[in-house]
Amino acid sequence: MTRRAGTQGAASEAGTARAVKVEALWTVQDVSSYLGVPACTVYAWRSAGTGPPGRLVGRRLRYRPEDVLEWVDQLPTAVVS
Fold first, then answer.
1. What are 2-49's pLDDT values in tens digits?
2. What is the three-class DSSP state of 56?
3. How many C-beta atoms surround the C-beta of residue 52 within 10 A?
4. What is the pTM assigned to this prediction?
5. Dihedral through CA 68, CA 72, CA 75, CA 79, nearest 10?
6. Among 81, 27, 35, 22, which residue's Cα sits nearest to residue 57?
7. What does the alpha-carbon distance between residue 81 and residue 62 come to, in Å, rounded to a whole number?
8. Cβ distance 69 to 23 under 8 Å?
9. In the CATH scheme, what is the code of domain 22-73?
10. Strands (E), 29-69
C-alpha cells in the first residue's frame, strides 16, 4: 500500500483521535414528519424536482438532514393571500 504525503492530520500524528459527528440519514418518513406533510408529498416533490435533494442508497431514498434544513431556509418567505 502506498501512502500519500499529507494524508494524516496533526491530531493523528500526535496520537489523539478527532471526534467526528455524523448524523444519520433521514428517511422519507423522517422528512415528511419534520416538514409536517404526507410522505406522498415528499415523493411528489422529488418527482417534480422541487423538493429537498435526496440520494439513493442502494434502492432506498435518503436525505441528509443539513440538505433538508438548507432547502427549508431557501424557501420563499412571502405570504400568499
1. 555 555 555 555 566 777 778 899 999 999 999 999 999 999 999 999
2. strand
3. 21
4. 0.70
5. 150
6. 27
7. 34
8. no
9. 1.10.10
10. 55-57, 60-62
Cα→Cα distances 50→6, 7, 21, Å: 41, 38, 29
Distance (Å) of CA 70 to CA 4, 11, 58, 66, 74: 35, 31, 24, 6, 6
Q: What is d(CA 23, CA 67) in angstroms, rounded to the nearest whole number?
A: 12
- CA distances 53 to 19, 41, 57, 65, 77, Å, are 27, 14, 13, 10, 20
Sign, Cα dihedral of 43, 46, 50, 53: positive
Say whether 78 sits in a helix, a strand or coil.
coil
Total residue count of the chain as it appears in this document: 81
